[in-house]
Amino acid sequence: MMDIDGGAGAEFVESTRNFLQWFQSLPGATFHQNIRIEDLRERGAGRGIIATADIEPDTVLFTIPRQAILCAETSDLATKLPALFAQDASAAASDDNDGDDSKSQDGWTLLILMLIHEALQGSASRWKPYLDILPRRFDTPMFWPALDLAELQASDVVAKIGKADADAMIRTRILPTIHANSAAFFPAGTAPLSDEDLWELAHRMGSTIMAYAFDLESDDAPSEKESTPEDDWVEDHAPPTILGMVPLADLLNADATFNAHINHSPAALTAVALRAVPAGTEILNYYGPLPNSELLRRYGYVTPAHARHDVVELPWALIQSHLRAPLRALSDTQWAAATASVEDADDTFVLERATDDPDATGQIATLATFAGLPEELTDAVKTFLKGVLKAAPRAAAFLEDKTARKAVILEGVHGALGEREGQYATTLEEDDALLGNGARGRKEMAVWVRRGEKNLLREAREWVAGQLDEARRAGLSRGREYEEGDGQAAKRRRR
Ligand SMILES: C[S@@+](CC[C@H](N)C(=O)[O-])C[C@H]1O[C@@H](n2cnc3c(N)ncnc32)[C@H](O)[C@@H]1O
């Protein structure tokens, strides 16, 4: 969710009209007669684009000439401060905002500087009507107070919000650059902004880029290959890319299934209908196979359709602690020796469902289902179990058997999944009730995120339980007793 432009209806309509007039006056721009920019603020979606009449598949909905894009290739700031843009060409090709303390610029910080520069030019900016319809205020978790963040409970997204990194980036790379080049940023005769105002502006522009910017192929890159639409759903275009703000293309809202796509060509970007779009339907783009947690972090919204892409991280430490039960035949000393040999004890493993990519029309026909543990996770446990065998060759001898090993892995993961779900303060059922009772705003979004993660944990746990049953049955049929993970029984048998 975001605050689009102060909220007043007349102001909203006027800034939309000015923007569209500006856009349509650009050489090479097109805007199909059967689409309209719509006020969707009532459902917290800002502006969007809808079809006003039926649209045929493959219709070009609008065309954005490259010159309309705000990026290093078009920005006046790049002309004013060429040294800044030449500073680190390789870093500028990346949108990687790692928030480190280095003073050099990258694609991300340069675009923040370009946006701040344009905003400070006021009416002299050739993007003024575009800048006027960008959000003034964001409501992504970066700006949430602790009370609202607490609603995300045990979601991994809480550790990824990155406020401290963003602050460090603004402190070390944005403010000093503006101070050192104030004549380039502040038009003659205008008073420089206070640091406080610049700070707020930098945060706003950083959030704008996160939710609005596009990865574009740079002039140096080969033009886009002929590709099937399915290829295009892959979120990361092959490098080198540059970050840019693309007026109108960024007015499209998005979902996990969608009906339009932005094609990149050397002269222009075009929005194309992927299928028939009935009158009254919103034109939707695709931001990628993102979990709701990530959709919330980057864009400030969630949708039910994105829940299929939800993820949960399972830390190694949690898995290891649950391997103690099936490996209780080991003495504490043996266990300590086995755990001491674990490298990368800080690893976490990402659980996700198997899901098809959207088809060429932007739709997905199949359900997403949990179909297995990440290979890295099972490999890590297998490596650990080798260490266990080494530390306790007799007590852990039952691990020589493949099915026994499998049962131990599954039992450990099963326990870890249960504990991970318990880390959330409410249950899945309580969250369902909250959504049913009309939770709204930040709370509703937070509940969607945490509920989706619990749902995935449940599915994963059911899958593991099924596999564990199978492994135990296989063990029983071969007369083994490790099915309870009882290494002691195995040990006794060997005497
Ligand atoms: C690229 S902009 C799209 C245009 C935006 N609605 C506007 O008025 O400027 C991305 C932002 O639009 C909103 N948005 C996009 N898709 C949405 C959806 N399906 N539901 C609600 N909000 C959405 C989010 O606030 C997101 O940060």
TrEMBL record:
One Pfam family in the UniProt entry? Rubis-subs-bind
The answer to whether the entry has keyword S-adenosyl-L-methionine is: yes
Domain SET intervals = 33-288
Source organism superkingdom: Eukaryota
Coiled-coil intervals: none
Q: What InterPro entries does this protein map onto? A: Rubisco_LSMT_subst-bd (IPR015353), Rubisco_LSMT_subst-bd_sf (IPR036464), SET_dom (IPR001214), SET_dom_sf (IPR046341), SETD3_SETD6_MTase (IPR050600), SETD6_SET (IPR044430)
Q: Name one GO molecular function term.
A: protein-lysine N-methyltransferase activity
**What are the recorded Gene Ontology BP terms?**
methylation
CDD domains recorded:
SET_SETD6
User: Can you name a GO cellular component term?
Assistant: nucleus
Stretches for region Disordered: 474-495
Which keywords does UniProt give here? Methyltransferase, S-adenosyl-L-methionine, Transferase
Looking up PANTHER family in the UniProt record yields:
N-LYSINE METHYLTRANSFERASE SETD6, UNCHARACTERIZED PUTATIVE METHYLTRANSFERASE
Output this protein's name.
Answer: SET domain-containing protein
Recite the lineage of the species: Eukaryota, Fungi, Dikarya, Ascomycota, Pezizomycotina
